[in-house]
Each structure stands twice: as C-alpha cells, then as structure tokens.
Amino acid sequence: MGTLAFLQQQASSVAADIDLLTVGITVVAVVFSVAIFVAIAFLSYRYRRGSKVDRSRPPQYNHLIEILWTGIPLLIVMGIFLWATTLYFKVVKVPADAMEIHVVGKQWMWKLQHPSGRWENNTLHVPVGRPVVLTMTSEDVIHSFYVPEFRLKQDVIPGQFTQLWFTPTKTGTFHLFCAEFCGTLHSTMGGSVIVMEPSDYERWLTEGNVQETVSAVGQQLFRRHGCSGCHGANSSVRAPMLEGIYGRPVAVQVAKAGVPLGQTQATTMIADTRYIHDAIVLPEKEVAAGFRPIMPTYKNRLSETEVFQLIAYIKSLSSKRDPETRRQDNSDRLTPEDYEARTGFTPENIRGGAAGRGGRNSGGPNGGVAAPMNERTTR
User: Fold this and answer.
1) In terms of pTM, does the model score above 0.90?
2) Fold type of domain 99-205
C-alpha cells in the first residue's frame, strides 16, 4: 500500500500496515454512518407529517432485522479486533538482532546514546534497513516519543523502562515530537530522526560526541560507586553474582507489607533490564533469596543515564558465561541445585523444592521456611 495523499510518508516497516488498518476502520465507520444517515433521511421524509402513508399496522419487531443489525456489526468488529491484535504483536515483538539505543527524556529535551558511546541531544541517527530498539525512561515527568512518519508512539515514564522498535525503510530526516503534555515548554520538546545509509552511519558513529562504549562507562561507575566491593570477583563479601545474570532466572523475595522478609515465599523471575534497574534504585523491592536487604539505594544518586550505563555493563558480563551453559539455560525456573551452583549455597527459603514462577516451597507458614536469612550481604 503506497502512501495516501492525506497522510505523511511511510518511513518504517510497520507504517503501511498501520495506515491500512486506519483506512479500514475509517471505511467501516463511513459506510455505516452514511447508511444510517440515508435511512434516517428516507424514513423522515417518507413518514413526515401530512404524507399519505398507511400507519394503521406499524411493525413491533422483526427477528431478521435484529439478527442482521447485531450479527453483521459483531463480525466486523471481531474482524477488526483480530486484525489489530495481529498488528499489535508485530509492533511490540522486538527482533532479536535489533540494535539498542538508550533514550532519556527530561524537561524539555531528549538525550540518546548509542552502544558505541556516541551520544546526541534531540536528534537520533539510525541506519536504514536495520531494526532499532529504543529503551527509554524519564528523569522527571511522563513524556511520549512520537515519530509520525514511522506511525509509532511510546510513553516514556519515570522509574520505568519502555521500549519502541522500528526498521527505517527510507533515508531522510523525519520529525520527532513529545506527544504527552510535560510542562510549560512541551511544544518545544522535539527533534529529528535522521535515517542514513549503513556506511554513512558507521562513519558518523566515530565522529563528534564520542566517548567510551556504554558498557565501559558502566564498568567505571561500577567501581567508582563501590559496587565491586561486594559484587567483584575478588570481594571478601559474598553478594549475588552478576556475571552472566542478565536474561537468566534468579530467586528473589518480593517485599510485602506486614510480612517479615524472611517469611515471604521465594519465587523466580528473569533478570531483565527492569529487574536490574529496580535492584539499583529500589533494592528492597525484590531481594535476592537468602540475602539480607542491606544494599543502599542509588535513587537520586545516579541519573537515569548512569543507570543505563550500569545495566549495559552488567549485560556485557553475560557474554562471559560458558557457551554450553548458555545454550542449555532456557528455563524460567530455578531449582535449589541451580542456585547453589551459581552462588555456592542454597538459601533456607528455597530449600525443599524448585523456586518457580508462582511455585510453592515446602515447610514453614505460607509455604515458605521462616528461617533466619543467610548472613551474607546483598547489593
């Protein structure tokens, strides 16, 4: 489907699909609106005051009409629902080979950083034909990253990570807007997305505002803020292992109001970007099973950009994991044996059974063992 005259040009791989859905919904709405308007106009004229029409036996009901005006719209709406749902999953499913770019929104600008270390403000350079995923957060209020030519928009929320991916299909410069009212200068919070040929993009990465790679900067922050004192390989303090943790299941205890942490049931979750972010800024929210909640919070001590950099460093540690283990580790469950193999001990609160998603552990009240937590510390 080509670009329609009343729409802006299509510059992403999903733009044509979104336009087609929009046109389909519009056509359905117009057809029904016209049909209803014509019916009302005809009946108003036909049965106007003074017209010679037999009104002696008006129909009270008609089963066929009732079935049709209920069934046909239902089928159309369900068809649109399935169409839109299929497109939704296409839009939200990030390709495995997508290039990740970090985006931080703040009043009233966008700060973007590429994996190589190149950073820019209010302008995003990307290569044509390559999937790009934006991992975004905000330092203050809710913003919204919107590129009309891509037909894509995503809210950017403080304290959370959201993602938006796209594959540019045309080179050129395209408008970037904040589509969520974010303060007095909201209207000035814009910029451009510049789509380049891959060779030009690679050359651009080496020029201008270039610093060390994001993971290298994160490693420096890791040492500067004392994280290596507990999580480093040579640390005398035992803390949860970070090497190879990204993307793997970890046993945690989720804090609950009025319940001592040592009595909460251990569960398993995947150590993704959100989990690591919260472990840095909200360390008491989800505590590694078997460890005391003594890690200090880095909220308001690190900017969101610095948290991004720390996460990038922790993600880079996953490449050090044994390849054979990496191939086999495709489960979202963590048994006590798995945990002991990774940490050197098995926490009391996950002994006696696998700590899976929503799993139940043997012993103790509420399915958990109300034993003292291990004396080792956590960051």
Assistant:
1) no
2) Immunoglobulin-like (2.60.40)
